Amino acid sequence: MVPADTALGMPGADDPLILDDIVRSLGRDLPLVREALVAISTKSGGTFADRGQDAREALINEWYPGGGGPAAALGRVIVGAYYRDDRVLRALGHEARAPFPKGYVLEQGDWSLLDVVRKRPTLWRDDRVLPTGGR
Prior knowledge:
This protein has helices spanning 16-24, 30-43, 53-63, 68-82, 86-91, 115-118. With 135 residues, it is an all-alpha fold.
């Protein structure tokens, strides 16, 4: 899903270190990822790995939009592991480090966009409020 780009110094998602991270981070997504892999294998007639890169990309691009939860889970674990890789972060011009405790500076956005959400009625039970409305 993410090919290597030697010009930018970025490994592909098939890099052994990234693949190890993908396997370690599957967790609750494992059943959906298995479904995705079965669907891809079925769509390719069991020849996915034997196809050239262009044919594999075409197959994935055709399958992914209709792949539902399995496609989303597969994409999520691949992209998550890919963008955790130090080589990828450096190639993108970021420091290869965790975001905390040092943090990152984010450009401030328009907080008024949240006004619609703030005006909604409470959607959950608030145990701090007594049935009579007092606290």
